[in-house]
UniProtKB/TrEMBL annotation:
The lineage of its organism: Bacteria, Bacillati, Actinomycetota, Actinomycetes, Pseudonocardiales. It comes from Actinokineospora bangkokensis. It comes from the Bacteria. Keywords: Hydrolase, Transferase. This is Amidinotransferase. Transmembrane segments: none annotated. GO terms for biological process: arginine metabolic process; citrulline metabolic process; positive regulation of nitric oxide biosynthetic process. The active site is at residues 186, 286. One of its GO terms (molecular function) is transferase activity.
Length: 293
């Protein structure tokens, strides 16, 4: 007697090891670079004598916002203020986690006045209980929410004491990380959260190890063994200053290695040109403050 049995073998697929990269709708606060300029230098990218095309900066920023809108995200706008050329970098002005808002306190006097404009915006837009920090705190420039932890950078801008303050105000666990390369003066120039932690998966991040102290590097390796490690070239175009909704990642177009790794890992990459904003040391993420309900 002959009988045939068809054996159905499990097909090894990427899905076994790679979690589904699910998008969630985000709410972003942005500030049009109508008064953008490089008039002073508070980081190594800024050269006030270098040529800057402010019309192009505006066009590049508008294209960035169009990507967010095309992806279905909610975008709110704060009015730019003359005399505050760095106000376009909205990420530096607030950390919003689970509806709680911690404002900013800038290190450079040239940016100090920005903090109050954002405080006023939050108060007028559903967040009356903004807490203003007592220590230097450049908000999402140095704080990255992973879904279960707040990664916190220090070394150039945000005071380490601001990390404890953030934990107290926001009520979430904070992990301090030391930045050591002046070119990567904010955490968001060296690390990006690609997908947030879920009950089944740890958060997925990408970072540039050389931007961190040896101990911080070890801590990142322990927390995120499956992270994407960026190359010096990825970092040097501010490729890590990217914005992810869990599936779509908006990335400076020069970051080709990082983009390839993102695609392999199941993300959809949206390249953007940020040549003019980069002359101030900023990229997509710096322009984007995330409001987490
Ligand atoms: N020129 C600005 C500064 O030095 C750039 C800020 C960029 N923002 C950021 N989140 N990394 O403060």
């Amino acid at each position: 007697t002959t009988s045939t049995t068809t054996l159905v073998l499990p097909v090894p697929s990427a899905a076994v090891s790679t979690p589904e990269r699910r998008r969630t709708t985000r709410h972003y606060l942005v500030c049009e670079p109508r008064h953008f300029a490089v008039e002073y230098s508070i980081n190594p990218w800024m050269d006030p004598s270098a040529p800057l095309d402010t019309d192009l900066a505006l066009a590049q920023w508008r294209a960035l916002v169009e990507v967010y809108e095309a992806l279905g995200h909610r975008v709110s706008r704060i009015a730019p203020v003359p005399g505050l050329p760095d106000m376009v970098f909205a990420a530096n002005s607030g950390t919003v986690v689970r509806g709680r808002v911690l404002g900013a306190r800038f290190r450079a006097p040239q940016r100090a006045a920005e903090a109050d404009h954002f405080r006023t915006w939050f108060q007028a837009n559903g967040h009356p209980r903004v807490v203003m920090p007592t220590r230097v705190n450049e908000a999402e420039g140095d704080f990255a929410w992973t879904g279960d932890l707040l990664l916190a950078g220090t070394g150039f801008r945000t005071d380490p004491a601001a990390h404890a303050e953030a934990q107290e105000v926001l009520g979430v666990p904070v992990v301090s990380l030391s930045l050591v390369d002046p070119a990567y003066y904010h955490l968001d120039t060296a690390l990006v959260v690609l997908s947030e932690a879920t009950p089944d998966h740890r958060a997925h991040i990408a970072y540039y190890p050389e931007a961190f102290s040896a101990g911080s590097r070890e801590a990142l390796r322990t927390l995120y063994p499956d992270a994407i490690l960026a190359t010096p070239e990825d970092a040097a175009c501010l490729g890590l200053n990217a914005v992810s909704d869990g599936h779509n990642v908006v990335v400076p177009r020069e970051a080709t290695h990082l983009s390839a790794r993102l695609t392999e890992s199941g993300y959809t990459v949206h390249p953007v040109d940020i040549s003019e904003l980069r002359k101030s040391g900023g990229g997509p993420k710096c322009c984007t403050l995330e409001i987490r309900a």
